[in-house]
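Handout for the seminar on molecular recognition.
Each group receives one record of this type.
Step one: identify the two inputs.
Step two: read the structure output and locate the region that could contact pyridoxal-5'-phosphate.
Step three: write two sentences on what you found, then compare them with the reference statements printed after the record.
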Amino acid sequence: MATPTAPTARRLVTEIPGPRSLDAQRRRLDTVAKGVGSVLPVFVESASPGLLHDVDGNTLIDLGSGIAVTSVGAAAPAVVSAVQEQASRFTHTCFMVTPYEGYVRVCEELAELTPGTHAKRSALFNSGAEAVENAVKIARHATGRQAVVVFDHAYHGRTNLTMALTAKNMPYKHRFGPFAPEVYRVPMSYPLRDPQGLTGQQAAARAIDMIDKQVGADNLACVLIEPIQGEGGFVVPAPGFLPEIARWCAERGVLLVADEIQTGFCRTGTWFACGHEGVVPDLITTAKGIAGGLPLAAVTGRAEIMDAVHGGGLGGTYGGNPIACAAALATIEVMREQDLCAKAAEIERIALARLRDLAGRFPVIGEVRGRGAMIAAELVRPGTTEPDADLTARIAKACHARGVVVLTAGTYGNVLRLLPPLVIPHAVLTEGLDVLAAAFTEVVR
Ligand SMILES: *Cc1c(COP(=O)(O)O)cnc(C)c1O
């Protein structure tokens, strides 16, 4: 946790990165594999709501939450003490050897919080990719079918099966093949890049026609979709797209798997993004925001589907680790008590208004979109939809130099995305957005 005297606002006392960070970065390059990158090689010492304190005494504004993870903050007192308390009792038994109640309580919370009032079961894992892999295992086992449909711009992870499910070649897939078979990709609803006026229903019909003709419902175990795409560029499908895909899946006995690893746990202003259009998936994968930064992931789904798998068919040594479960229970309590869904909606109002104002002044912003605390600006050559990845990178860099952590995303690398912790103080968020505006003024000529 940050020391009691830690600054409560952005404070730069060196260049970014500072000399100590540069030194650590040099050592890192001698020991850490180059394939593991960092957006901003500033070495962090502690955190407080919306702020990261580095080894040089700088305080940075965090508009990334470690990629949508630290929604309750990176040092939430309730999470810290739950972790300490659990660690002092026991760190691990393996739930598959001798179980413990924390795991069960997390599954009870998942049953209550995820969409739908049907009977549910959950299984816990360590990472988002592992949850997605298991959702596919379960869907195949329960349906006796093999094919999996995913969408353009999708991101589902970096393991072998999830690389196959992920759309983008660089950096995720390049020269890492061969990839798992029986994965089929269809067009997403992407309002900025679809033909003008294509409705959600029409975009769904386009995808469904392709599935019908190229895969066939009888061969299809599941349709896997992010309700709002994350790494793909915060692509929000046109209204009606998700419900129509869900309706077709239900009609054809195909399982709908919602990957809510990035959108879940209050991030978009509701507990889960499917809730915005009343869609109830058969299976849902969660991770990232679930446990305040501890590694935890889950598959939650209809009891009869989940329980179709034979005993011993699912699991892993660390899945549902007791410390991670304790952190999740504390995180969920903070989300309830501080009404972080409402906080996400408030962040949406503030950030969307600021970005729309910027879009009015800078025609390089082709579209501003997003929900809750998942807000993006897509940068293009003015008057076109031609992506401008170079400009996007330069604006992100200008923010970093001014001590604001922002991330980029998108198939074309041209999306600036904001994922602030939901507990970010109003003044910190506002200053972060001021810095973003200043970066546009400086970089765009
Ligand atoms: C991050 C992410 C994953 C992969 O999660 P990891 O914990 O990095 O394996 C899968 N799906 C979505 C939508 C994600 O955002």
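Reference statements: The CA atoms of residues 68 and 326 lie 19 Å apart. The mean pLDDT is 97.
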